[in-house]
Amino acid sequence: MTETRHIHIAGAGMAGLSAALQLSLMGEKVTVYEAAPYAGGRCRSYYDRELDCRIDNGNHLVLSGNVALQDYLFLTRANESMTGPNAPLFPFMDLETGERWTLLMNSGRLPWWIFDRKRRVPGTKAKDYFSSLRLLTAGTQDTVASRFKTRATIYRRLWEPLAVSILNTEPESASAQLLRNVLAQTAGAEGKACIPMMPKIGMSESYVMPCLNTLRQHGAEVKFGQRLRRLITDATVVKGLDFGGAPVEIAPHDWVILAVPPWVARGLVPGLTTPEDYRSIINVHYRVEAPPNPAGFTGIVGGLAEWIFVKPGVVSVTISAAERYEEQQQETWALYVWRNIAKLYDLDPQRIPPWRVVHEKRATIAATPQQNALRPRAYIDWKNLALAGDWTNTGLPCTIESAIRSGIKAAQVVLRWV
What is the pTM of this model? Predict the structure, then answer.
C-alpha cells in the first residue's frame, strides 16, 4: 500500500488557494500555512472602522474570458456570487472634454461593432482598431508604447488606459507581449469573452470563503499566523519547514509549494532569481451613494484613476502604476480623486465624504520586458519544491487570472510526481 504523501503550501493568497484546490480535489493531503490571520492576500474584503462599512482591499475587474478564474469559481461553487452586465460593454468618460460613451462589443468572433460609430470610441474610425494587430509581431523587448501611434485618439482613449490598468506599468516601459497575451484571451477570442464580472458582495465572498469551505470539505487544513522563516534543506531537497517553533518535517515523498511574494521566495530559496522591480496601486474608497450604472464601473480618461467602481454605499477608485505621479499625502490623493468622481456624477467637488486611501507600494512586479524575463517557472529543478504566484512565469501580467493559473501549474508539477 502506497503511503499518503503530504503537500505543504506556504501562502494562502489566490495562488496558494488555487494550488490547494487542485490538489485537494485530486485526493491529496494538503496543509496551507498563512502568515496573516486571513486568506486571500490582496483579494479580500474587510470591515473598515473609519468608513463604518465593508470594503474590498482593491478593485479587480475580471472578464468572462478568464478561463482559469471561471474554472476556479466553478470548482468552489461560487459562480452565482458574481455579477455584471450581460453584454461586453465598457462605459467611459473623458474628464478633459466631458464626453461620455459606451464601448459596446458584439458577442461573436467577428468584431463588426467597430464599424458602428455609436459602439466605438468617439473620434475613432474602424481602421484605427486594427492598430492592435501590431502587438502580434511584438518582440520580447518591445514596449506597449513602441507598438502604437501614441498621439492617436484611440491610443489616448483606449489602448493607453487599458494597458496601464492591465499591466500596472506605464506603457513606455510595459511589455507589449504581456498585453498581447491578455487581449488574445479576451478581446482576441470573441466578444462574449469580454463580459465584465465582479463579486456581488465582496472579493472574500467570491474568491476566498467558497474556496476555504471547499478545501475543508475535502480534508485540507488551513493554518493562519504561520510565517515561514526558513526552509530546512539538503542541496536541492526540502527536509523541513521552520515557522519559529518545532520544525515541520518533510518526508521524502512529500512536496512543498511556495506561494509567497517574490521577495519572500528569494530569501527562502538559495540562488533563486526573481523580479525585483515593483509598481504600486492606490485605491481610494468613499462612503457615498452614487447613481447606478449598467456596468458597475466607469473607465476614466484624463484623470488620476483608470476605473471608478460603484457599490452599494461605496465608490472605489483604482490608480494603477502610481509612480507616474508625485508622492502625495493621503488627504491630497483623496481630494484629487474626489474631483474626478464629482465630475463623473455631477456631485459637489468641495463636499468630500468619508474616505479611505489604501496604498500598496509593491502591489505587482513591473510588467517590463526586463522583469518578465526574470520570472521563474513553477518547477525550478528542486526534487520536492514548486513555486506559485502571479509573479511566476504564467505568460500573463500580475492579475487574478495569473495567480490562479500559477497555482494550477504548481499543482501539475506535484501531480506529475506520483
Answer: 0.95
